[in-house]
Fold this sequence. Notes:
Layout: E1 15-16, E2 19-20, E3 27-29, E4 41-43
Antiparallel strand pairs: 1-2, 3-4
Amino acid sequence: MSKVMKCMCEECYYNQNFACNADAIEVRSSGDKMVETSAGTSCHTFKLRSDRP
């Protein structure tokens, strides 16, 4: 399985020093399901951090 090398979502519970610490991630298409760039995707593993300011 591939390892997520970088996570720039600082609000995510699984982000530890910009590395994803989730056991696995699920990425889905978003919007009209026409994915041609990364902007057309979303991470469904995202969980909001409880310690954010």
